[in-house]
Amino acid sequence: MISTRRRQVKPLLEKVLFLLLPDTAANFINEKQKRFRMFAKHRRKARKLPEILLLVGIAYSYFLYPAFLWIWRGLRGPKMVRKSPIEPSVTLIIAAYNEEDKIKAKLENSVRIHFPREKLEILVASDASSDATDAIVREFPEVRLCRTPERRGKEHAQKKAITESTGEILVFTDSATLLDPNAIQSLVANFGDPRVGAVSSKDVMLGGGNGSGEGMYVRYEMALRRLESQVHSVVGLSGSFFAARRQVCQNWSEDFPSDFNTVFNCARMGYRAISDEQSLGYYKDIRKGVSEFDRKVRTLLRGMTALFANLSLLNPMRYGVFAFQLFSHKLMRWAVPLFLIELALRTLWRMRRPDNFGIFLFSAQALGYAMAYGGWKREPLRSLPPVKVAHFFTQVNVAIFMALLKYAKGERIRMWNPTQR
C-alpha cells in the first residue's frame, strides 16, 4: 500500500516542481534520463561479459600465455643454460614393442651416433615383444637386450632397463624416431649446468605433417617449449627422445607417462627441464587421421591421469614459476573444449534477441565449424590454411573432451601401443 502511494505521489511532485521551477525541473529530468541511458549502456556491456571471459579463456593457453612468456623473456632476459662439453657415461634406452619393421633402422641409426663408444651403452627395453624384434636386436653386438617376461607397458619396460643400466645420464627414445648423429652430444652438454635435470629434443616431422596437420602443431609446440625453457622450465618432454640425470629417474612411475613424470621429478628436486634446439629427433607424420585422433586421446588421458594425481605441483608458493607454467599450458588448454561448448550454448541463447555482438559470435563459430567439417569430410580442402587450422583445432579439442570424459568415467591407460607411422 505504501509503495503504491509513493509511485503515485512521485510523478505529481515532478509536475509541481516543473510548474514552480521549470529550469530546475528540466535539469532534474535530463539528469534522470542520462542516468537511465548510462544504466542501459552498462547493462548491455554486462551482458557481453560472460562471452568475453570465455573468449579470453579459449585464447589464453594458445595465445595469451605464449605472449606473456615472450614479454617476460624480453623484460628479464632469457634464462640461459651453461652448456659445457662434458662426456659422462650415457645409456641410450630404446623402448620397443613388436617393432620388427623399424627396429633394424633404429639400431643402425643408434650405433652411428657421435659419442665415445666406451661411454655409450645402448639398451633395447622390449616390452615382451611377440614378433621378431628381439631376434633383430641380438644381431647387433653393440646393443644389449633388456626384455620383460610379460607385457606390462612402456614405463615398466623402461624401469627394468634403468635398473640394468650404468649411465650417469639416461637417454630415452622410441623405435620410430631417428636421431641426428650429434643429438646425444648436444643433449648431454646441457647437463654441464647443475640446475638442469632433464632435456627434451626438438621434434622434426618428416613430410611436414601435411596430411593430418600434426606438423603445424609440432612446430607451434616446439616454439612454445623454447619460450618456456628461456623463462624457466618446460612442462612436458618429447616422449620420443629426451634425457635425464640418473637421480631424477629413481622415482620412476609405471602408471604415468615417463616424459611427463620426469618433469614432475625435476620440479620436486629443484631442477629445470629444458628444450634443446640442437638435439633433433626425426619421425614420420601419421597419415591415417583416425590413428592420429586415437593417439591424441590416449596421450591426453595419460597426461591427465598424471597431472590430476600430482595437483600439489600447482602450488605457486612451493613451485613458483613452474606452477604457473603447468596451470597455463596444461590445465587451461584442457579447459578449452568446455569453454567452447559454453560459448556455443550462450551464443544460441543470445540469438533469441540478436544484437551485433551475438551475430558476430554466431557467424564466427558457424564459419569455423563449417571449415572444420569440410576439412574432415574432404581431405583436399586441408591444403587451404584456414581450413587446416580450423580442422586441426577442432580435432584437438574433441580429443581433449573425449579424454576428459574417459577420465571422468574412471578409464586409465597403462598398456602402450606404438603409433603406426
Structural account:
With 421 residues, the chain is α/β, with parallel strands linked by helices. Helix content is 56%, strand content 13%. It has 13 helices and 8 strands. It has an 8-stranded mixed sheet, sandwiched between helices. Helix 4 links the parallel strand 2 and strand 3. Helix 1 packs across helix 2 (22-76). The longest helix is centred in the first third of the chain and has 55 residues, at 22-76. The protein is globular. The chain starts with a helix and ends in a 13-residue tail after the last helix. The mean pLDDT is 87.
Number of extended strands: 8
Ends apart, CA distance between termini: 80 Å
What characterizes the major β-sheet? 8 strands, mixed
CA gyration radius, whole angstroms: 29 Å
Shape descriptor reads globular
How do the strands line up in the largest sheet? 3-2-1-4-7-6-8-5
Q: Taking all residues together, what is the mean pLDDT?
A: 87
Number of helical stretches of at least 4 residues: 13
SSE series: HHEHEHEHEEHEHEHEHHHHH
Helix content bin: 55-70%
Structural class of the secondary elements? alpha/beta
> Which regions are unreliable across 5 or more consecutive residues at pLDDT < 50?
none
Q: Please indicate the percent range of residues in DSSP E strands (runs of 2 or more).
A: 5-15%
